[in-house]
Design goal:
43% of the residues lie in helices and 16% in strands. With 103 residues, the protein is of the alpha+beta class.
C-alpha cells in the first residue's frame, strides 16, 4: 500500500473507537502524528491539509485498541482475538484471579 502512494502519502489503520492503530507516513514527517480520541480523523484532516494521498485500511487484527481493562474484555469476547492472544489473556486472567485470592 505504501508503494502505491509514491513519494508522499499517509496510510492509516483506525481503531474501533476512532483512534489510530497503525500509521504509515511517507516521508515520515509529511504530517505530524496525532494521539488520543479521534486521532484517525485528525490524521485524515492533516493529510488533506498537506495535500497528500490518504488511504484508510480497516484491519480486523488492529481494530481494537487496548486502553482500558474493559477493552481486554471486549477483545477476548470478540472473534478478533487470535489463538495466541486468547491464550495470553486467559493466562493473565488466571494469574490475576490467583493473586486476588491470596491477598
Amino acid at each position: 500500500t505504501g508503494a502505491a502512494l509514491g513519494e508522499r502519502g499517509v496510510v492509516l489503520a483506525p481503531t474501533h473507537d476512532g483512534g489510530t492503530a497503525a500509521l504509515l507516513r511517507i516521508p515520515y514527517n509529511v504530517i505530524p502524528a496525532a494521539f488520543g480520541a479521534q486521532s484517525a480523523a485528525r490524521h485524515a484532516a492533516l493529510a488533506a491539509h498537506a495535500d497528500v494521498p490518504f488511504r484508510e485500511l480497516v484491519l480486523p487484527s488492529l481494530h481494537f485498541d487496548i486502553d482500558e481493562p474493559r477493552d481486554l474484555e471486549t477483545l477476548f469476547d470478540s472473534s478478533q482475538a487470535g489463538t495466541h492472544t486468547r491464550r495470553a489473556l486467559l493466562e493473565i486472567s488466571e494469574k490475576s484471579t490467583a493473586c486476588n485470592r491470596s491477598s
